[in-house]
Amino acid sequence: MDRPASDGFMARALDEARAAQARGEVPVGAVVVDAATGNVIARAGNETEAAHDPTAHAEILALRRAAKAKGEPRLAGCDLYVTLEPCAMCAAAISHARIRRLYFGAYDPKGGGVEHGPRFFSQPTCHHAPEVVGGVGETAAADLLRAFFQDKRG
Q1: What pLDDT, in 10s, does the model give residues 41-85?
Q2: I need a labelling partner for 133 at 20 to 30 A (CA). Which of 34, 49, 104, 140 fits?
């Protein structure tokens, strides 16, 4: 179900995804927002290829930048907008960061770790589970990914 992103934060995450695509990365973007003020604290797109780093997912980079900007490792009171359902690694980082609410765009039946695969937040070993809202701007996010991979296979 494609849920609208009326606040514009998913649009900013999509901008990050498009920038990642322009750099030759898988087009995934993420934005961390202070829920109380509505201010964007950090944003990122995938950088795994450029950094030669398998952990340089958009979510991880945005969380790192937000923690640095806030001067603390916990991001309680912050929301994360990401264009693709986070993988298990990113879900664990989201949990450790104590993100208040996770909004994601496209569902990822193959690599997702929130609604698919390990369903990280519902595991007994998960210390913190954010509220999760999936399908926000789903069509735009899925179309971007689909076009990217069609071009790669092309």
Answers
A1: 999 999 999 999 999 999 999 999 999 999 999 999 999 999 999
A2: 49
Instruction: Return the structure tokens found at 119.
Output: 């369903």
* Count, residues in the chain: 154
- Strand ranges in 46-154 using DSSP code E only, listed in sequence order: 78-84, 101-106, 131-134
Q: Which among 87, 133, 90, 126 has a CA at the least distance from the CA of 110?
A: 87
When pLDDT is cut at 50, 70 and 90, the band that residue 27 belongs to is very high
Q: Catalytic pick from 59, 72, 115, 131?
A: 59
7-25 residue pLDDT tens: 699 999 999 999 999 999 9
Is 59 labeled as catalytic in the residue annotation?
yes
Place of tokens 């701007």: 137
Q: Which residues contact 125 (CB under 8 A, 6 or more apart)?
A: none
> 89-110: buried (b, 16+ CB within 10 Å) or exposed (e) per residue?
bbbbbbbebebbebbbbbbbee
Beta strands in the chain (DSSP E): 29-34, 40-45, 78-84, 101-106, 131-134
42 DSSP β-pair partners = 32
Residue 136: strand pairing partners? 3
